[in-house]
Amino acid sequence: MDPVAHIRAGAETGTPWRFRLEELAWRDLVDGLKQEALPFVGLWCDGTDVHVLFLPHGNQPLAATLALEDGRYPALSPARAVSSLYERMVFDLYGAEAMWARDVRPLVDHDVWTSTTPLASMPGPAGGHKGMIAYQPSEAFLAAEGLAAGIGPATGRTGAPMHVALTLAGETIVGAETVTGYAHRGMALRWRNSRVDEACRLSGRVAAGCSAAHQVAFCQAIETACGEQIGHEVSQLRVVLLELERCVQHLYTLAALAQEAGAVLVASRCMWFREQLLKEAAPILGSRLLMDHCVPGGVSLRSASDVGDLCTRLAELGEENYSALSELWRGYPGLSARLAGIGILDRAALERLGLDGPVARAAGGDSDCRRDMRMYDGLWRFTAGRHGGSVDDRTAVLLDEVGESLRMLADLAPRLGLTAGGRIDLSYQDGEGIGMAEGPWGRVLYWVRLLNGRVEHVFLRDPSYPALMAFETVLPGQNVADVALIKASLGVNAAAQDG
Amino acid sequence: MGLIRAVFDATFRQGGARLKPVGPRWPLLLFHVDTGGCGGCGMELQALATGPYDAQGAGFGFVQSPRAADVLLVTGAVTRSMMPVLEATWQAMPTPKGLICVGNCAVDGGMFTENYAVMGGLDRKVQIDLRIPGCPPSPHDVLEGLFSLFGKRLEENASAGQDEGVGSSSTSS
């Protein structure tokens, strides 16, 4: 059975790429997905329906919808492992149960909220738990024998809070499980019926360091829902934001990895280079973490006409510093040796979890949504890098991508000239739209439904979902001292994942 | 070659403003807890700790355990799951101790006001010794805020430090 044809055979809806299925057809779809490799994006609920989104060809979306029956729906996790995180989230927020799900433990609701199932039409009573949240291990985790240990949520490091429960045999990890939800801020509730500009500001605060990617994807979704398209010049300004963000975020990650690996000098060189870039960019763009520069219909920059010059200066800075940094990284005594051979992700795990972004590229996966994007025409090029899948390979890919982004910024400089930027006025009609961007860690995708000039519902796909699963998958067999390295190299971000 | 150059510029840091410790006790040790937010304030703290701001030179150090800390730096909007963690961290710190809220979220929730999962900042819930507003505050803002604990301004100290640096290098040469 071809799942694409199967979905298309469903009843049409107001959105041309979304089809409504009956429950039996949905079950057939789950069975069909076990055999076919249709790229899964995510699953979400809006209280009455449950939706699942795929990307069959490039960036072309295809969604299936099923009405909840008695608050239940057949799970997709038997066919797509990562769906289990979405199913757990849907249960915590709406109380909708996934039948035959692989994992039904709570994901973000740990019985301390002021109401259970807060987004359901009738929210439940308040959680009765007091004090530190209790952790419910899975059966597989309980079966692992050894010394129990845990890391987090308050580690003194700067990442978003999460807990990693470990079972150890000596120094080797036997079982590992994450406890998330510490950073859950109720984004879905905040987005519900919010004003469009307010929703856009919120999307920039899902995960710092990926703000530009989130806001570009969100704004595109709003623009598609309104049936508008932004001009070429404005889209090029957005590319500047995205590539600059990739550059500084990768440098930040590389610094964290070097620090963790004991190469403090390399870490400070990475951070120094990052600060140099930000020192140039912040006065012209308006902020350091690139928040709130992409708005529905255009961009909002402090001085858009200087962005062309800015790109030239960033490229010059890159020329002065990048090769020295890259040389230092590769030649620093013991750094590559420390990172080599740990946290290896193989192709099979990659495909099973639907990973993308630099993590997938470092393991031989070929996924980059910039390839099919019009705004990257003549800018993006395929670059082959290392593909061993270890932490060392991932850092090499990150380092290469910094160079590629700097090259793109150099190419953008003459194209931009004295572009004025600006924005078009959108009239918010009822409808649905989808938008995506390649963030520092992979594809960021937004699905937005507008109703009465407001944002009625938002679904967000962030690479942190598969990254969390990959993190849990890769830990057994590793040394306990490498947990922080592996976590940083996979782009695990609890802030984005908890929502 | 790259290594030698890097060692040299770490040793004889040219260009970076050299800061002089401001605190009565040196260094002032900070423990950071992210209580649930976007993580932007945490990134800026990391930039302050490892970037070219010379936080160590100014007498501020980041530690990995609350037992070694003098000051608790809180970022994020304080989710209900993180509140007990924050309390336990506070209890683990030796007295005297202080509490600093970095960023709008930690102060009053900022964009993340109170809802089913979020308590919405620490303002009017506990005694806060210093508020550093911003979304997120830049590393410079944070450093300036920390300086204000001792009634000093960052600019004054930077120029004093630089003068001293120039003086000492001329005497040694």
UniProtKB/TrEMBL annotation, chain A:
Family matches, as Gene3D superfamilies: Cytochrome-c3 Hydrogenase, chain B
Key word Oxidoreductase present: yes
Domain of life: Bacteria
UniProt GO molecular function: lyase activity; NAD binding; oxidoreductase activity, acting on NAD(P)H; quinone binding
InterPro entries documented for this protein: ComplexI_49kDa-like, NADH_Q_OxRdtase_suD, NiFe-Hase_large
Domain NADH-quinone oxidoreductase subunit D: 262-413
Keyword hit for Transferase: no
Keywords: Lyase, Oxidoreductase
Protein name: Formate hydrogenlyase/hydrogenase/NADH dehydrogenase subunit
Organism whose genome encodes this protein: Acetobacter tropicalis
TrEMBL record, chain B:
Domain of life: Bacteria
Pfam families: Oxidored_q6
Transmembrane annotation, as ranges: none
The entry's keywords: 4Fe-4S, Cell membrane, Iron, Iron-sulfur, Lyase, Membrane, Metal-binding, Ubiquinone
Keyword GTP-binding found: no
SUPFAM superfamilies: HydA/Nqo6-like
Entries under Gene3D superfamilies matching the protein: 3.40.50.12280
Protein's UniProt keywords contain Oxidoreductase: no
InterPro entries: Complex_I_20kDa-like, NADH_UbQ_OxRdtase-like_20kDa
Domain NADH:ubiquinone oxidoreductase-like 20kDa subunit: 38-148
A Gene Ontology molecular function term of the record: lyase activity
Cofactor: [4Fe-4S] cluster
Similarity section: Belongs to the complex I 20 kDa subunit family.
Protein name: NADH-ubiquinone oxidoreductase
Origin species: Acetobacter tropicalis
